[in-house]
């Protein structure tokens, strides 16, 4: 029972789902890609690290060779079909249309609800809250699938087929967040933050608060543009600029400075294709003609919000220092 409620079980279930997608994927190269990813999720904790790294490199090679690209079928409109009756492929012609109303949100809301429940239970039990939230996230996804099946009165085969179709439409970018998070850890361990700090100190005077705030927010945005994730960029900038050059010398509230620095970096998320789950996946799922259409729309708003973050952080620091 304890294993079922562990993070290892969530990873194992994820691996099984990816294997199901691999079995339903028609292209051999893509099939191997999703099988390897499922194997890493299921058995990565038992493998030597260099084996896992080798498998990831093999996945990169498969994608680089163009083996993991969306098929025309995976990009189809689920509401359209080439069938004589004009009905979706995954829907039998004798099935009446299902009207869900607001119930359609139940599977979606189940995921954050169970995630918060997992985090709350972990806090009560005085164990790792982040781990509890991840376990809740996994089982929240399982509950969402069960609710979707119950509401739509559909079959597990349809669930897997449509999941496989969406997964194939996203392609290899679905693993980009994990790779970029690992990149952030590598940058931090390599001392990139300290290198940035020395560069900022050589260009900006220690008492030039406004310029230090600009360098802090700009560094977060630039690294987020590279990594695609402000959470991955934050440790690098926080250890190199925010803490040693702003928080400690000026006696700044670290919680306030940290959250504004993090969200300043999130403006970079709106402007980079590296944030694939935000900016690239939607274009694939919606069949947009311009692959950068989402980014083009978001750039002006991102720049305005970045300026607002700089002004707000500088103002709050000045007010707090009195």
Concise synopsis of the structure shown:
This protein has 322 residues and is an all-alpha fold. The protein has helices at 7-24, 28-43, 49-64, 106-124, 129-152, 156-170, 176-189, 192-203, 209-227, 230-250, 254-269, 276-279, 281-286, 293-321. Helix content is 71%, strand content 0%.
Structure commentary:
The structure is a single chain. This protein is an all-alpha fold. The chain has two domains: 7-171, no CATH class; 177-321, no CATH class. 71% of the residues lie in helices and 0% in strands. It contains 14 helices and no strands. The protein is globular, with a radius of gyration of 23 Å. The model is unreliable at 79-94 (pLDDT under 50).
Distance between the termini: 56 Å
What would you call the structural class? mainly alpha
Uncertain residue segments: 79-94
Number of separate domains: 2
Rg measurement, Å: 23 Å
The dominant shape is globular
| Count of individual beta strands | 0
Average pLDDT figure: 84
In N-to-C order, the SSE pattern is HHHHHHHHHHHHHH
* Number of distinct helices: 14
Described by strand count, sense and barrel closure, the largest sheet is: none
Percent of residues in beta strands: under 5%
Estimate the helix proportion, in percent: over 70%
Oligomer: single chain
What topology does this entry show?
Elements: H1 7-24, H2 28-43, H3 49-64, H4 106-124, H5 129-152, H6 156-170, H7 176-189, H8 192-203, H9 209-227, H10 230-250, H11 254-269, H12 276-279, H13 281-286, H14 293-321
Helix pairs in contact: 1-2, 1-5, 1-6, 2-3, 4-5, 7-10, 8-10, 9-10, 9-11, 9-14, 10-11, 11-14
């Amino acid at each position: 029972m304890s294993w079922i409620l562990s993070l290892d079980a969530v990873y194992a279930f994820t691996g099984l789902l990816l294997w199901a997608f691999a079995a339903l994927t028609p292209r051999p190269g893509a099939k191997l890609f999703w099988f390897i990813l499922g194997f890493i999720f299921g058995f990565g904790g038992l493998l030597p690290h260099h084996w896992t790294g080798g498998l990831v490199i093999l996945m990169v090679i498969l994608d680089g060779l163009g083996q993991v690209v969306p098929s025309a079928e995976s990009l189809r409109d689920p509401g359209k079909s080439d069938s004589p009756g004009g009905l979706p492929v995954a829907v039998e012609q004798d099935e009446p249309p299902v009207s869900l109303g607001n119930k359609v949100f139940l599977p979606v809301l189940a995921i954050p609800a169970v995630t918060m429940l997992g985090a709350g239970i972990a806090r009560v039990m005085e164990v790792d809250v982040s781990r509890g939230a991840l376990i809740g996230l996994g089982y929240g996804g399982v509950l969402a699938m069960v609710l979707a099946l119950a509401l739509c009165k559909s079959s597990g085969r349809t669930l897997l087929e449509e999941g496989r179709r969406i997964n194939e439409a996203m392609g290899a970018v679905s693993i980009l967040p994990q790779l970029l998070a690992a990149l952030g850890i590598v940058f931090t361990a390599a001392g990139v933050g300290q290198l940035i700090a020395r560069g900022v100190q050589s260009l900006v005077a220690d008492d030039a608060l406004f310029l230090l705030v600009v360098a802090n927010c700009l560094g977060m945005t630039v690294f987020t543009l590279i990594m695609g994730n402000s959470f991955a960029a934050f440790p690098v900038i926080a250890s190199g600029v925010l803490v040693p050059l702003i928080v400690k010398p000026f006696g700044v509230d670290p919680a306030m400075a940290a959250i504004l620095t993090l969200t300043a970096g999130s403006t970079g998320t709106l402007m980079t294709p590296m944030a694939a789950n935000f900016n690239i996946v939607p274009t694939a799922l919606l069949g947009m003609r311009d692959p950068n259409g989402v980014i083009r729309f978001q750039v002006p708003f991102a720049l305005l919000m970045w300026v607002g973050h700089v002004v707000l952080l500088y103002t709050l620091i000045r007010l707090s220092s009195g």
